[in-house]
Amino acid sequence: MDPTRDPDFKPPSPNEQLQPPPDPKSTIPKSVPIVPFVPADLNETIDAPFNLEAVSHAHKNQNKKSTKNKKNKNHIPLNQFDFQPLSTNISEDEIIESGSQNSSPKTNAIDSEDDTNHNDEKTKASQNTTTTDTDSNATTLDYNRMSGTRVSFSTLGVLKSQIADLEEVPHGIVRQARTLENYEFPTHRLSKKLQDPNKLPLVIVACGSFSPITYLHLRMFEMALDAVIEQTRFEIVGGYYSPVSDNYNKSGLAPAHHRVRMCELACERTSSWLMVDAWESLQVNYTRTAKVLDHFNHEINVKRGGIQSVTGEKIGCKIMLLAGGDLIESMGEPNVWADQDLHHILGNYGCLILERTGSDVRSFLLSHDIMYEHRRNVLVISQLIYNDISSTKIRLFLRRGMSIQYLLPNSVIRYIQEHGLYVNSSEPVKQVLDSKD
Ligand SMILES: Nc1ncnc2c1ncn2[C@@H]1O[C@H](COP(=O)(O)OP(=O)(O)OP(=O)(O)O)[C@@H](O)[C@H]1O
Ligand SMILES: O=C(O)c1ccc[n+]([C@@H]2O[C@H](COP(=O)([O-])O)[C@@H](O)[C@H]2O)c1
Hints:
Domain Cytidyltransferase-like: 205-395
Helix content: 25-40%
GO molecular function: ATP binding; nicotinamide-nucleotide adenylyltransferase activity; nicotinate-nucleotide adenylyltransferase activity
Protein name: Nicotinamide-nucleotide adenylyltransferase
Number of strands: 8
Catalytic activity: beta-nicotinamide D-ribonucleotide + ATP + H(+) = diphosphate + NAD(+); nicotinate beta-D-ribonucleotide + ATP + H(+) = deamido-NAD(+) + diphosphate
GO cellular component, one term: nucleus
Bound molecules: adenosine-5'-triphosphate, nicotinate mononucleotide
CATH superfamily of the largest domain: HUPs
Strand order of the largest sheet: 3-2-1-6-7-8
CATH architecture of the largest domain: 3-Layer(aba) Sandwich
Structural class: alpha/beta
């Protein structure tokens, strides 16, 4: 659990300057900056027309500069091989679980136009896909909500087969690989193109244990979506869970492949826009959150060149961390987070903070120097309906043979039962009860 035990971890120096030195091991080449816009820059003129030309111009200049400095290694041309389809390694039990072995090709949203054949081949193992009119309406609604605009289904490049909002409707389930060698970044629900000319693309990433994923973890994204639409000039083009690797050593952590699989089931069966990225969970060592965000930036902005604007130009996509108040408060604890990482996360990426019952996030923001310095890049999300489902309590209920119905998706409950997860946990009960209460 304690990241300071990681061999890679550097304790923050008390005399450190406020601007952190660039991380020498960062995967982001210097000539491809992290998208510089912050929520506070944009929300002041929320109803005014947005000058995308200026943004594109700045983006082009940036590209020109980097070409001048050295060969522009970072401009990755948009071709079919940029957009790898997902791994479709399926275990037998997973096939049985999804109820059907009929194959029906499932096309990746971002891949669809570029790489249909390639994708078809890789997705032979997808399950039979059933969609109804209700499904299609739901997806149109979701995507409308993401941009706050009304667009027709066909303009989105979204296939009906990607819809998965009715828990028990059988459909293809996308799987993440179980080894790094087979790993591919999931893009099947990443919007390829912005729908609103007045907005900038945003991907949100939730890091955590997700042992197991609950309805609170799913609600986090929906609350973030509402806040982003209401208070910023960003359009969410994708949402990802990044479960920690087994090296996090937190008690109650089920093996990473189970946690990834439960997140996948939850996303695929209850959402039409959320995805799970197994990269962090597959790392041999514990990976600091700053590096996880670098990985997302690398996959989306460096490898894929960003997201297309309405006019078809590629623009950089902002990546933000989505975290609960407790996680944010851990940033104030000594020797947990490195100061330079906090500057990187809060300054360069930004954070959507979901308030948690019993924790005063706004006061914390005010009292924490680094957080306060980057406050314009932080958005606090209020919970209008308080939800405090905790994975710790779920594990305790399972251990005591109590019901966990309606606290997490049925598909996840079934998975836990089938794999006998958490029932024999040896997590100290005192710790379970004390945790975050
Ligand atoms: N009740 C809550 N309110 C707001 N955010 C939450 C809440 N519970 C968890 N989160 C957030 O969800 C993310 C994933 O957290 P995590 O996997 O630790 O969930 P958890 O339920 O707190 O787990 P555990 O009980 O095992 O500590 C973190 O950003 C965390 O802050
Ligand atoms: O990057 C760091 O230094 C760091 C320090 C403490 C916690 N984190 C991350 O915060 C998340 C905490 O998850 P959890 O389940 O312990 O609430 C998890 O994704 C950790 O990797 C990250």
